[in-house]
């Protein structure tokens, strides 16, 4: 998963590979890293609240390690990233295409 490695189309990585002028997040409170987007950025608080609610029933807290390593978190984290709109290539993904938890073992998200 690209979120684990940080090699994903967020500002910090795009800046490192010279595809973006700055690593700074649009909220101007830090670099646009995976950790910042998932856990800190105030611009995505509504999406984060949704993700927290979706994961609380599964006993998953909003910690970077749990979000990026627990298989039960995959669908919610993927939907969170789609909802943020930060990854342009996924803006046309139907969130229902992400499937239900437990059904995503090895599944691929089909993008039109």
Can you describe what's shown?
This is Reverse transcriptase zinc-binding domain-containing protein. It comes from Penicillium antarcticum. With 112 residues, this protein is an all-alpha fold. The chain has one domain. It has six helices and no strands. It has helices at 2-5, 11-16, 34-40, 45-56, 64-69, 74-84. The longest helix has 12 residues, at 45-56. It is globular. Mean pLDDT is 84; it is low at 101-112.
What's the story with the biggest beta sheet? none
End-to-end distance? 20 Å
What oligomerization state is this entry in?
single chain
Radius of gyration: 14 Å
What structural class do the secondary elements suggest?
mainly alpha
Strand content: under 5%
Organism: Penicillium antarcticum
Protein name: Reverse transcriptase zinc-binding domain-containing protein
Summarize the structure.
The chain has helices at residues 2-5, 11-16, 34-40, 45-56, 64-69, 74-84. With 112 residues, it is an all-alpha fold. It comes from Penicillium antarcticum.
Features:
mainly alpha, Reverse transcriptase zinc-binding domain-containing protein
Task: Please outline the helices and strands.
Blueprint: H1 2-5, H2 11-16, H3 34-40, H4 45-56, H5 64-69, H6 74-84
Helix pairs in contact: 4-6
């Amino acid at each position: 998963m690209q979120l684990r490695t940080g090699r994903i189309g967020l500002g910090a990585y795009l800046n490192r590979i010279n595809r973006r002028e700055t690593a700074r997040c649009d909220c101007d409170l830090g670099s646009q890293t995976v950790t910042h987007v998932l856990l800190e950025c105030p611009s995505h608080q509504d999406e984060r609240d949704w993700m927290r609610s979706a994961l609380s029933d599964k006993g998953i807290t909003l910690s970077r390690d749990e979000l990026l390593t627990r298989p039960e978190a995959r669908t919610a984290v993927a939907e969170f990233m789609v909802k943020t709109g930060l990854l342009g290539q996924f803006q046309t993904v139907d969130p229902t295409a992400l499937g239900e938890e437990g059904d995503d073992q090895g599944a691929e998200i089909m993008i039109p």
